[in-house]
Amino acid sequence: MKNAQINQAFEYAKVRYAELGIDVEKAVEQLDKLPISLHCWQADDVSGFESGDTELTGGIQATGNYPGKARTIAELRADIEKAMSLIPGEHRVNLHAFYGDFGGESVDRDQIEPKHFQSWIDWAKAKNYKLDFNCTCFSHEKSGDGFTLSHRDNTIREFWIDHVIRCRKIAEEMGRQLGSKCMHNIWIPDGSKDLTVDRLYYRQNLKDSLDKIFEYKTNDIYMKDCIESKLFGIGAESYTVGSHEFYMGYGIRNNIIVTLDSGHFHPTEVISDKISSLLLFLPEVMLHVSRGVRWDSDHVVILGDELQAIAQEIVRADAVDKVHIGLDYFDASINRIGAYVVGVRATQKALLQALLEPITQLRAYEAKGQNFERLALLEEAKSLPWAAVFDYYCMKKGVVAGEAYIADIQQYEKEVTGRRGE
Ligand code: RNT
Ligand code: ZN
After folding, report:
1. Residue 379 belongs to a domain
2. Calpha distance 263→201 (Å, rounded)
3. Strand ranges, E, within 229-357
4. Fewer Cβ neighbours under 10 Å: the N or C end of the chain?
5. Nearest ligand to the C-alpha of residue 189?
6. Cβ of 395: how many Cβ atoms within 10 Å?
7. C-alpha pair distances (Å), 134 with each of 164, 166, 223, 355, 379
8. Domain range enclosing 178
Protein backbone atom coordinates (compact mmCIF):
# COMPACT_ATOMS: atom_id res chain seq x y z
CA MET A 1 0.00 0.00 0.00
CA LYS A 2 1.35 3.39 -0.93
CA ASN A 3 0.94 6.37 1.36
CA ALA A 4 -0.97 8.26 -1.31
CA GLN A 5 -3.46 5.40 -1.51
CA ILE A 6 -3.83 5.29 2.27
CA ASN A 7 -4.43 9.03 2.38
CA GLN A 8 -6.98 8.88 -0.39
CA ALA A 9 -8.94 6.08 1.28
CA PHE A 10 -8.75 7.92 4.58
CA GLU A 11 -10.17 11.10 3.03
CA TYR A 12 -13.10 9.10 1.72
CA ALA A 13 -13.59 7.42 5.12
CA LYS A 14 -13.58 10.82 6.80
CA VAL A 15 -16.38 12.05 4.58
CA ARG A 16 -18.39 8.87 4.89
CA TYR A 17 -18.15 8.83 8.69
CA ALA A 18 -18.93 12.55 8.86
CA GLU A 19 -22.27 11.76 7.22
CA LEU A 20 -23.02 9.80 10.39
CA GLY A 21 -21.70 12.55 12.62
CA ILE A 22 -18.50 10.73 13.48
CA ASP A 23 -15.14 12.43 13.79
CA VAL A 24 -12.49 9.99 12.57
CA GLU A 25 -9.56 12.12 13.68
CA LYS A 26 -10.89 12.04 17.21
CA ALA A 27 -11.31 8.26 17.08
CA VAL A 28 -7.70 7.89 15.95
CA GLU A 29 -6.54 10.09 18.81
CA GLN A 30 -8.52 8.00 21.28
CA LEU A 31 -7.18 4.75 19.88
CA ASP A 32 -3.66 6.07 20.19
CA LYS A 33 -4.15 6.48 23.94
CA LEU A 34 -5.21 2.85 24.44
CA PRO A 35 -2.35 0.66 25.55
CA ILE A 36 -2.49 -3.09 25.20
CA SER A 37 -0.45 -5.28 27.48
CA LEU A 38 1.59 -7.85 25.55
CA HIS A 39 1.95 -11.05 27.52
CA CYS A 40 5.63 -12.00 27.52
CA TRP A 41 4.76 -15.70 27.64
CA GLN A 42 3.70 -16.01 23.99
CA ALA A 43 7.33 -15.74 22.85
CA ASP A 44 8.63 -18.74 24.82
CA ASP A 45 5.60 -21.00 25.36
CA VAL A 46 5.27 -20.02 29.04
CA SER A 47 8.70 -21.44 29.95
CA GLY A 48 10.24 -18.60 31.97
CA PHE A 49 13.90 -18.15 32.85
CA GLU A 50 14.45 -19.92 36.10
CA SER A 51 17.58 -22.05 36.23
CA GLY A 52 17.04 -25.65 35.21
CA ASP A 53 14.28 -26.98 33.04
CA THR A 54 10.91 -25.64 34.10
CA GLU A 55 8.09 -27.88 33.02
CA LEU A 56 4.84 -26.03 32.34
CA THR A 57 2.19 -27.21 34.79
CA GLY A 58 -0.96 -25.79 36.31
CA GLY A 59 -3.42 -27.16 33.78
CA ILE A 60 -2.35 -24.86 30.96
CA GLN A 61 -0.63 -25.96 27.78
CA ALA A 62 1.20 -24.38 24.85
CA THR A 63 0.66 -26.81 22.01
CA GLY A 64 2.89 -26.93 18.93
CA ASN A 65 6.60 -27.03 18.20
CA TYR A 66 7.13 -24.27 15.69
CA PRO A 67 10.85 -23.43 15.60
CA GLY A 68 12.23 -20.19 16.99
CA LYS A 69 10.97 -19.96 20.53
CA ALA A 70 12.84 -17.42 22.66
CA ARG A 71 15.36 -19.23 24.86
CA THR A 72 16.92 -16.35 26.72
CA ILE A 73 15.89 -13.00 28.12
CA ALA A 74 17.79 -11.28 25.31
CA GLU A 75 15.89 -13.28 22.68
CA LEU A 76 12.55 -12.65 24.31
CA ARG A 77 13.22 -8.92 24.48
CA ALA A 78 14.31 -8.85 20.85
CA ASP A 79 11.13 -10.68 19.83
CA ILE A 80 8.90 -8.31 21.77
CA GLU A 81 10.72 -5.34 20.25
CA LYS A 82 10.15 -6.81 16.81
CA ALA A 83 6.46 -7.33 17.51
CA MET A 84 6.13 -3.80 18.93
CA SER A 85 7.71 -2.37 15.79
CA LEU A 86 4.80 -3.79 13.80
CA ILE A 87 2.11 -2.49 16.14
CA PRO A 88 1.05 1.17 16.13
CA GLY A 89 1.01 3.07 19.43
CA GLU A 90 2.69 2.75 22.81
CA HIS A 91 2.06 -0.43 24.72
CA ARG A 92 2.82 -2.44 27.82
CA VAL A 93 4.62 -5.70 28.51
CA ASN A 94 3.11 -8.17 30.93
CA LEU A 95 5.76 -10.16 32.80
CA HIS A 96 5.50 -13.24 34.96
CA ALA A 97 7.57 -13.78 38.08
CA PHE A 98 9.50 -16.70 36.62
CA TYR A 99 10.86 -14.44 33.86
CA GLY A 100 13.18 -12.70 36.33
CA ASP A 101 16.78 -11.95 35.43
CA PHE A 102 18.34 -14.39 37.88
CA GLY A 103 21.81 -14.37 36.31
CA GLY A 104 22.00 -18.14 36.15
CA GLU A 105 21.41 -18.51 39.86
CA SER A 106 18.68 -20.57 41.36
CA VAL A 107 16.35 -18.15 43.13
CA ASP A 108 13.24 -19.75 44.54
CA ARG A 109 9.87 -18.06 44.29
CA ASP A 110 9.95 -17.04 47.93
CA GLN A 111 13.28 -15.29 47.38
CA ILE A 112 12.59 -13.03 44.42
CA GLU A 113 13.09 -9.32 44.78
CA PRO A 114 12.80 -6.16 42.70
CA LYS A 115 16.51 -6.44 41.84
CA HIS A 116 15.75 -9.55 39.76
CA PHE A 117 13.55 -7.39 37.55
CA GLN A 118 15.72 -4.30 37.37
CA SER A 119 17.06 -5.17 33.94
CA TRP A 120 13.46 -5.55 32.70
CA ILE A 121 12.58 -2.16 34.15
CA ASP A 122 15.66 -0.58 32.54
CA TRP A 123 14.81 -2.18 29.22
CA ALA A 124 11.20 -1.03 29.43
CA LYS A 125 12.32 2.50 30.26
CA ALA A 126 14.73 2.60 27.34
CA LYS A 127 12.06 1.32 24.96
CA ASN A 128 9.24 3.42 26.38
CA TYR A 129 7.16 0.41 27.39
CA LYS A 130 5.24 0.17 30.65
CA LEU A 131 5.13 -3.04 32.67
CA ASP A 132 2.49 -5.26 34.21
CA PHE A 133 3.25 -8.24 36.41
CA ASN A 134 2.02 -11.63 37.58
CA CYS A 135 2.99 -13.91 40.41
CA THR A 136 3.84 -17.40 39.13
CA CYS A 137 1.97 -20.03 41.15
CA PHE A 138 2.51 -22.93 38.76
CA SER A 139 5.41 -24.82 37.14
CA HIS A 140 6.95 -25.41 40.57
CA GLU A 141 7.40 -28.43 42.83
CA LYS A 142 5.29 -26.79 45.53
CA SER A 143 2.32 -26.64 43.16
CA GLY A 144 2.87 -30.21 42.03
CA ASP A 145 -0.28 -31.66 43.55
CA GLY A 146 -2.43 -28.95 42.02
CA PHE A 147 -2.85 -26.68 45.04
CA THR A 148 -1.06 -23.48 46.10
CA LEU A 149 -2.81 -20.71 48.05
CA SER A 150 -5.60 -23.10 49.04
CA HIS A 151 -3.31 -25.98 49.99
CA ARG A 152 -4.06 -28.21 53.00
CA ASP A 153 -0.50 -27.82 54.21
CA ASN A 154 0.04 -24.55 55.99
CA THR A 155 3.74 -24.35 55.10
CA ILE A 156 2.95 -24.64 51.40
CA ARG A 157 0.28 -21.98 51.70
CA GLU A 158 2.75 -19.73 53.51
CA PHE A 159 5.29 -20.25 50.76
CA TRP A 160 2.86 -19.04 48.10
CA ILE A 161 1.57 -16.17 50.24
CA ASP A 162 5.16 -15.03 50.62
CA HIS A 163 5.70 -15.33 46.87
CA VAL A 164 2.64 -13.27 46.01
CA ILE A 165 3.49 -10.51 48.49
CA ARG A 166 6.99 -10.35 47.01
CA CYS A 167 5.47 -10.05 43.55
CA ARG A 168 3.22 -7.23 44.66
CA LYS A 169 6.31 -5.38 45.91
CA ILE A 170 8.06 -5.98 42.61
CA ALA A 171 5.01 -4.66 40.76
CA GLU A 172 5.05 -1.58 42.95
CA GLU A 173 8.68 -0.97 42.08
CA MET A 174 7.98 -1.38 38.38
CA GLY A 175 5.19 1.16 38.57
CA ARG A 176 7.27 3.57 40.60
CA GLN A 177 10.26 3.54 38.29
CA LEU A 178 8.26 3.64 35.09
CA GLY A 179 5.74 6.21 36.28
CA SER A 180 2.79 4.08 35.30
CA LYS A 181 0.59 1.91 37.46
CA CYS A 182 1.59 -1.74 37.19
CA MET A 183 -1.32 -4.19 37.15
CA HIS A 184 -0.43 -7.20 39.26
CA ASN A 185 -2.55 -10.25 38.52
CA ILE A 186 -3.04 -13.28 40.71
CA TRP A 187 -4.03 -16.48 39.00
CA ILE A 188 -3.58 -19.83 40.70
CA PRO A 189 -4.13 -23.29 39.22
CA ASP A 190 -5.75 -24.80 42.33
CA GLY A 191 -8.27 -27.51 41.61
CA SER A 192 -8.92 -31.22 41.22
CA LYS A 193 -9.25 -33.72 38.47
CA ASP A 194 -12.00 -35.58 40.21
CA LEU A 195 -14.95 -35.13 42.49
CA THR A 196 -14.04 -33.02 45.46
CA VAL A 197 -16.18 -33.24 48.53
CA ASP A 198 -14.80 -30.42 50.65
CA ARG A 199 -15.15 -27.62 48.18
CA LEU A 200 -15.81 -25.09 50.88
CA TYR A 201 -12.64 -26.02 52.75
CA TYR A 202 -10.25 -25.08 49.92
CA ARG A 203 -12.16 -21.90 49.18
CA GLN A 204 -11.93 -20.93 52.83
CA ASN A 205 -8.17 -21.51 52.63
CA LEU A 206 -7.90 -19.38 49.51
CA LYS A 207 -9.88 -16.60 51.13
CA ASP A 208 -7.62 -16.67 54.20
CA SER A 209 -4.50 -16.63 52.03
CA LEU A 210 -5.75 -13.66 50.04
CA ASP A 211 -6.60 -11.81 53.25
CA LYS A 212 -3.01 -12.31 54.40
CA ILE A 213 -1.65 -11.25 51.01
CA PHE A 214 -3.64 -8.03 50.97
CA GLU A 215 -2.80 -7.22 54.58
CA TYR A 216 0.45 -5.96 53.11
CA LYS A 217 -0.47 -2.56 51.74
CA THR A 218 1.06 -1.30 48.54
CA ASN A 219 0.89 2.18 47.08
CA ASP A 220 -1.90 2.08 44.56
CA ILE A 221 -0.42 4.96 42.62
CA TYR A 222 2.23 2.46 41.54
CA MET A 223 0.42 -0.85 41.43
CA LYS A 224 -3.05 -2.35 41.45
CA ASP A 225 -4.06 -5.85 42.43
CA CYS A 226 -6.21 -8.06 40.21
CA ILE A 227 -7.61 -11.54 40.79
CA GLU A 228 -8.40 -13.94 37.94
CA SER A 229 -10.95 -16.75 38.04
CA LYS A 230 -11.18 -19.87 35.95
CA LEU A 231 -13.66 -22.58 35.11
CA PHE A 232 -11.34 -25.56 34.80
CA GLY A 233 -7.84 -26.58 33.80
CA ILE A 234 -6.32 -29.67 32.25
CA GLY A 235 -6.20 -32.14 35.12
CA ALA A 236 -8.51 -29.92 37.17
CA GLU A 237 -11.72 -30.64 35.34
CA SER A 238 -13.99 -31.29 38.30
CA TYR A 239 -13.23 -28.48 40.67
CA THR A 240 -11.50 -25.10 40.50
CA VAL A 241 -11.08 -23.32 43.80
CA GLY A 242 -10.84 -19.81 42.33
CA SER A 243 -14.10 -19.80 40.42
CA HIS A 244 -15.79 -16.69 39.02
CA GLU A 245 -18.23 -16.44 41.93
CA PHE A 246 -15.36 -16.78 44.37
CA TYR A 247 -13.31 -13.93 42.96
CA MET A 248 -16.25 -11.73 42.09
CA GLY A 249 -17.40 -12.00 45.68
CA TYR A 250 -13.92 -11.45 47.05
CA GLY A 251 -13.18 -8.59 44.69
CA ILE A 252 -16.36 -6.70 45.38
CA ARG A 253 -16.16 -7.13 49.14
CA ASN A 254 -12.51 -6.05 49.24
CA ASN A 255 -12.47 -3.59 46.37
CA ILE A 256 -9.97 -5.59 44.34
CA ILE A 257 -10.02 -5.59 40.56
CA VAL A 258 -11.40 -8.72 38.92
CA THR A 259 -9.64 -10.07 35.83
CA LEU A 260 -11.88 -11.54 33.17
CA ASP A 261 -10.12 -14.01 30.88
CA SER A 262 -12.19 -14.73 27.79
CA GLY A 263 -11.10 -18.38 27.85
CA HIS A 264 -12.23 -19.02 31.42
CA PHE A 265 -15.95 -19.43 31.09
CA HIS A 266 -18.41 -21.89 29.63
CA PRO A 267 -18.05 -22.14 25.84
CA THR A 268 -21.03 -19.91 25.05
CA GLU A 269 -20.53 -17.57 27.99
CA VAL A 270 -18.88 -14.27 27.07
CA ILE A 271 -16.92 -11.77 29.12
CA SER A 272 -18.12 -8.79 27.08
CA ASP A 273 -21.42 -8.79 28.92
CA LYS A 274 -19.77 -8.93 32.32
CA ILE A 275 -17.92 -5.61 31.97
CA SER A 276 -20.88 -3.28 32.55
CA SER A 277 -22.00 -5.25 35.59
CA LEU A 278 -18.61 -5.37 37.24
CA LEU A 279 -18.02 -1.68 36.64
CA LEU A 280 -21.05 -0.86 38.77
CA PHE A 281 -19.40 -2.52 41.74
CA LEU A 282 -15.68 -2.17 41.10
CA PRO A 283 -13.78 0.89 39.90
CA GLU A 284 -11.78 -0.97 37.27
CA VAL A 285 -11.64 -4.25 35.39
CA MET A 286 -8.69 -6.16 33.95
CA LEU A 287 -9.06 -8.26 30.83
CA HIS A 288 -7.12 -11.24 29.57
CA VAL A 289 -8.20 -11.34 25.98
CA SER A 290 -7.79 -14.81 24.59
CA ARG A 291 -9.59 -17.08 22.13
CA GLY A 292 -10.80 -20.41 23.30
CA VAL A 293 -11.59 -22.89 20.57
CA ARG A 294 -13.86 -25.51 22.15
CA TRP A 295 -12.00 -25.07 25.43
CA ASP A 296 -9.57 -22.65 27.08
CA SER A 297 -7.11 -23.35 24.29
CA ASP A 298 -5.43 -19.94 24.25
CA HIS A 299 -5.58 -19.44 20.49
CA VAL A 300 -4.36 -16.19 18.94
CA VAL A 301 -6.91 -13.40 19.25
CA ILE A 302 -8.68 -12.52 16.01
CA LEU A 303 -11.23 -9.93 14.96
CA GLY A 304 -14.25 -12.06 15.81
CA ASP A 305 -17.65 -11.31 17.31
CA GLU A 306 -16.60 -11.53 20.94
CA LEU A 307 -13.54 -9.33 20.50
CA GLN A 308 -15.75 -6.74 18.82
CA ALA A 309 -18.31 -7.04 21.60
CA ILE A 310 -15.62 -6.55 24.25
CA ALA A 311 -14.36 -3.40 22.52
CA GLN A 312 -17.91 -2.10 22.05
CA GLU A 313 -18.73 -2.61 25.70
CA ILE A 314 -15.59 -0.76 26.80
CA VAL A 315 -16.37 2.20 24.56
CA ARG A 316 -20.13 2.23 25.05
CA ALA A 317 -19.70 2.14 28.83
CA ASP A 318 -17.28 5.06 28.54
CA ALA A 319 -14.76 2.87 30.33
CA VAL A 320 -11.57 3.19 28.32
CA ASP A 321 -9.82 4.47 31.44
CA LYS A 322 -11.27 1.77 33.65
CA VAL A 323 -10.73 -1.36 31.61
CA HIS A 324 -7.17 -2.59 31.31
CA ILE A 325 -6.60 -4.72 28.24
CA GLY A 326 -4.06 -7.51 28.38
CA LEU A 327 -3.71 -10.40 25.98
CA ASP A 328 -3.33 -13.98 27.13
CA TYR A 329 -2.67 -16.79 24.70
CA PHE A 330 0.21 -19.05 23.84
CA ASP A 331 0.26 -20.64 20.43
CA ALA A 332 3.45 -22.62 19.80
CA SER A 333 2.28 -23.87 16.41
CA ILE A 334 2.91 -20.73 14.37
CA ASN A 335 5.47 -17.96 14.21
CA ARG A 336 5.31 -16.56 17.74
CA ILE A 337 6.01 -12.95 16.83
CA GLY A 338 3.34 -13.17 14.18
CA ALA A 339 1.00 -14.42 16.90
CA TYR A 340 1.58 -11.22 18.87
CA VAL A 341 1.12 -8.93 15.92
CA VAL A 342 -2.08 -10.60 14.72
CA GLY A 343 -3.58 -10.51 18.22
CA VAL A 344 -2.68 -6.92 19.07
CA ARG A 345 -3.68 -5.53 15.70
CA ALA A 346 -6.99 -7.38 15.86
CA THR A 347 -7.62 -5.88 19.29
CA GLN A 348 -6.80 -2.40 18.04
CA LYS A 349 -9.07 -2.85 15.03
CA ALA A 350 -11.92 -3.90 17.31
CA LEU A 351 -11.33 -0.84 19.49
CA LEU A 352 -11.21 1.44 16.48
CA GLN A 353 -14.46 0.01 15.11
CA ALA A 354 -16.04 0.62 18.49
CA LEU A 355 -14.73 4.18 18.62
CA LEU A 356 -16.20 4.81 15.18
CA GLU A 357 -19.64 3.46 16.03
CA PRO A 358 -22.63 5.73 15.31
CA ILE A 359 -23.53 5.38 18.97
CA THR A 360 -25.68 8.51 19.31
CA GLN A 361 -28.02 7.38 16.57
CA LEU A 362 -28.05 3.80 17.86
CA ARG A 363 -29.00 4.98 21.33
CA ALA A 364 -31.72 7.19 19.93
CA TYR A 365 -33.22 4.27 18.03
CA GLU A 366 -33.06 2.09 21.09
CA ALA A 367 -34.73 4.68 23.30
CA LYS A 368 -37.60 4.92 20.87
CA GLY A 369 -38.00 1.17 20.51
CA GLN A 370 -36.91 1.33 16.86
CA ASN A 371 -35.29 -2.06 16.95
CA PHE A 372 -35.19 -2.75 13.24
CA GLU A 373 -33.42 0.57 12.72
CA ARG A 374 -30.96 -0.25 15.48
CA LEU A 375 -30.20 -3.67 14.00
CA ALA A 376 -29.83 -2.28 10.48
CA LEU A 377 -27.44 0.45 11.54
CA LEU A 378 -25.37 -2.00 13.59
CA GLU A 379 -25.08 -4.15 10.47
CA GLU A 380 -24.17 -1.24 8.22
CA ALA A 381 -21.59 -0.02 10.72
CA LYS A 382 -19.67 -3.27 10.28
CA SER A 383 -18.80 -2.41 6.69
CA LEU A 384 -18.10 1.29 7.08
CA PRO A 385 -14.54 2.10 5.94
CA TRP A 386 -12.90 1.65 9.35
CA ALA A 387 -10.05 -0.34 7.77
CA ALA A 388 -8.98 2.78 5.87
CA VAL A 389 -8.82 4.61 9.18
CA PHE A 390 -6.70 1.82 10.68
CA ASP A 391 -4.29 1.93 7.75
CA TYR A 392 -4.04 5.67 8.18
CA TYR A 393 -3.33 5.25 11.90
CA CYS A 394 -0.53 2.76 11.10
CA MET A 395 0.96 5.12 8.54
CA LYS A 396 0.80 8.03 10.96
CA LYS A 397 2.64 6.00 13.58
CA GLY A 398 5.29 4.88 11.10
CA VAL A 399 4.16 1.26 11.17
CA VAL A 400 3.47 -0.87 8.10
CA ALA A 401 -0.18 -0.92 7.05
CA GLY A 402 -2.21 -3.89 5.89
CA GLU A 403 -0.70 -7.32 5.38
CA ALA A 404 2.79 -5.94 4.76
CA TYR A 405 3.89 -7.04 8.23
CA ILE A 406 3.80 -10.67 7.04
CA ALA A 407 6.93 -10.06 4.97
CA ASP A 408 8.62 -8.34 7.91
CA ILE A 409 8.00 -11.31 10.14
CA GLN A 410 9.19 -13.72 7.47
CA GLN A 411 12.37 -11.73 7.22
CA TYR A 412 12.89 -11.78 10.98
CA GLU A 413 12.29 -15.51 10.92
CA LYS A 414 14.88 -15.95 8.22
CA GLU A 415 17.46 -13.85 10.02
CA VAL A 416 16.69 -14.48 13.68
CA THR A 417 14.10 -16.93 14.99
CA GLY A 418 14.64 -19.50 12.24
CA ARG A 419 18.31 -19.72 13.17
CA ARG A 420 17.71 -20.51 16.80
CA GLY A 421 18.70 -24.03 17.63
CA GLU A 422 21.11 -24.29 14.68
C1 RNT B 1 -4.34 -19.45 33.05
C2 RNT B 1 -4.56 -17.98 33.16
C3 RNT B 1 -3.34 -17.17 33.41
C4 RNT B 1 -2.16 -17.62 32.58
C5 RNT B 1 -0.96 -16.72 32.67
C6 RNT B 1 0.26 -17.38 32.14
O7 RNT B 1 -5.44 -20.12 32.64
O8 RNT B 1 -5.23 -17.51 32.05
O9 RNT B 1 -3.62 -15.84 33.24
O10 RNT B 1 -2.49 -17.76 31.24
O11 RNT B 1 -0.82 -16.27 33.94
ZN1 ZN C 1 -5.44 -15.39 31.89
Report:
1. no
2. 26
3. 239-240, 257-261, 285-289, 291-293, 295-299, 323-327
4. C
5. 1
6. 19
7. 9, 11, 12, 30, 39
8. 36-356
pLDDT band at 1 (very low <50, low <70, confident <90, very high): confident
* Cβ contact 291:329 at 8 Å: yes
Q: Is 230 near ligand 1, meaning CB less than 6 Å away?
A: yes
CA 396 to centroid of ligand 2, rounded, Å: 32
Q: How much distance in Å is there from the Cα of 297 to the middle of ligand 2?
A: 11
Residue pLDDT, tens place only, 200-259: 999 999 999 999 999 999 999 999 999 999 999 999 999 999 999 999 999 999 999 999
Residue 328 alpha carbon to ligand 1 centre in Å: 7
The CATH number of residue 164's host domain is 3.20.20.150
| Residue nearest (by alpha carbon) to ligand 1 atom 5 | 328
Give dist(CA 20, CA 13) in Å, integer.
11
Q: What atom in ligand 1 is closest to the CA of residue 290?
A: 8
Instruction: Please tell me if the CB atom of residue 232 comes closer than 6 angstroms to any atom of ligand 1.
Output: no
Say how many domains are in the chain.
1
What is residue 279's predicted lDDT score, i.e. its pLDDT? 98
**What is the model's pTM?**
0.98
Can you give the pLDDT at residue 187?
98
- Is 264 noted as a catalytic residue in this protein? yes
What mean pLDDT value characterizes the chain? Answer: 97
